[in-house]
Amino acid sequence: MKFCANLSFMFTEGASILERYALAKEAGFKAVETGFPFGHTLEQVKKAKESAGIEQILINLKTGDVSKGELGVTAIPGKENEFKENLQVTIDYAKAVGAKKIHIMAGKLENVTSSNWETYENNLKYAADVLKNVNLLGVIEPINQHSVPKYFLSDYGKAVDIIKRIGSEHLKLQLDIFHLQHICGDLSHNIKNLMPYVGHVQIAQVPNRNEPDVPGEINYPYILQHLEANGYNDWIGLEYKPAKGSKDGLKWIASFGYSL
């Protein structure tokens, strides 16, 4: 198992996202993933990442003002040009930091219609074609309605159907076990059935999104072994809110028999 720190959730104690690259390295991480680094230039982010001497695995698509709940426009008719612009900006950042994966966020919607699904799929098809040309992977992630009410994509079946219809090696599923448990549970069977479509995995305990070893619904020693047994050998993003402090909360890695 290879674990990367999610800098949007970890090492946040008074540190900017630029400072978190170094903090992750100091904690022993070899790699990180991030949300889109709003407020920081491409040059600033590249310098912070390179100064820390750490690898970047994934970056989230530029989404708009997160503080206002804007989590992308991929499923919003009439905003196709904005989506294309956001995708290109994110590709530029991904190239600068060497990230090979982009999480394409769908957006939040009050009322969902068939035109939203049509727009979403058309934009993803466009993204897959663009990402093929630059040899990057796009991933889409169902997000549960408890954590992010009104998030457009919260159905694994629909996500897989779209991935299959588009049929590109440059569009896959981001499988966050935290969201999988909230949305449909039945983790053993769902992990096995979804694995052929998976391009990235993230973890956190349910229900409070803390470290995998805190009390909760998921038996992570089993789940991590199950992921490996079903063929997943890529990076696993630690997208959790540390209950014990980012560095102190990493003791679970050794106790589970792993290392950074």
TrEMBL record:
Its EC number is 5.3.1.22. One of its GO terms (biological process) is glyoxylate metabolic process. Residues 22-255 form the Xylose isomerase-like TIM barrel domain. The keyword Isomerase applies. Signal peptide: none annotated. The active site is at residues 141, 239. It catalyses: 3-hydroxypyruvate = 2-hydroxy-3-oxopropanoate. Keywords: Isomerase, Pyruvate. One of its GO terms (molecular function) is hydroxypyruvate isomerase activity. InterPro entries: HyI-like, Sugar_Epim/Isomerase, Xyl_isomerase-like_sf, Xyl_isomerase-like_TIM-brl. Catalyzes the reversible isomerization between hydroxypyruvate and 2-hydroxy-3-oxopropanoate (also termed tartronate semialdehyde). Belongs to the hyi family. This is Putative hydroxypyruvate isomerase. It comes from Papilio machaon.
